[in-house]
Design a protein that fits this description.
Elements (H helix, E strand, L loop, with lengths): L2 H4 L10 H24 L2 H17 L10 H23 L18 H17 L3 H12 L4 H8 L3 H18 L5
Helix pairs in contact: 2-3, 2-4, 3-4, 6-7, 6-8, 7-8
Length: about 180
């Protein structure tokens, strides 16, 4: 059944604020939480950042010029709120918190367990990258955004995206003892 047959609006601009926010929430909430989690490593903080983004969009709906750009607005709002989480953490915790052993599966002979452990190792190393490098890596390799899309989302130049991605990858190679 197509969207039109199901009675779904073609765009969020075709409906009122309440319905538009509900449509956006159903379509993008899970992805935004995953983005927030990738940036913070904290599900609660990711959910809060996502909720705050939707509340902000709801409050400012009438001042948003292009409602078709609402998804980009939400994504940028989640990134900005995750930056705030890191600023708060930096003020209260000066040392990097080690990955808790109870959150990591113990590796077994199974390749899935090994892949899971490797994924946790990489995620823990990405979390300790400098903020801008972490954001670029998440946008480029987790969200699969182009360099231009990443630059637009983070409000930096494409050259800056390339620079931060290169430095982050080099640092990850060193930390994970991977040969390029």
């Amino acid at each position: 059944m197509s969207r039109a047959e199901a009675g779904a609006p073609d765009t969020v601009a075709d409906v009122g604020r309440d319905e538009a926010i509900a449509v956006l929430f159903r379509a993008h909430c899970a992805d935004l939480i995953r983005l927030g989690y990738a940036l913070t490593g904290d599900r609660g903080a990711a959910e809060e950042a996502t909720q705050d983004a939707f509340i902000s969009l709801y409050r400012h709906w009438n001042s948003v010029r292009d409602h078709s750009a609402s998804r980009a607005y939400l994504r940028a709002a989640v990134v900005n709120r995750c930056r705030s989480v890191h600023r708060r953490r930096a003020r209260t915790i000066r040392a990097v918190e080690p990955l808790r052993p109870d959150l990591v599966s113990s590796p077994g002979a199974d390749s899935d367990a090994l892949a899971h452990e490797a994924s946790h190792r990489i995620a823990s190393q990405v979390r300790i990258l400098p903020q801008r490098q972490r954001e670029v890596i998440v946008c480029r390799y987790y969200l699969d955004l182009t360099e231009r899309e990443t630059a637009d989302l983070l409000d930096v130049t494409v050259g800056s995206v390339k620079k931060h991605a290169s430095r982050a990858i080099a640092k990850l190679h060193d930390q994970l003892e991977v040969s390029p």
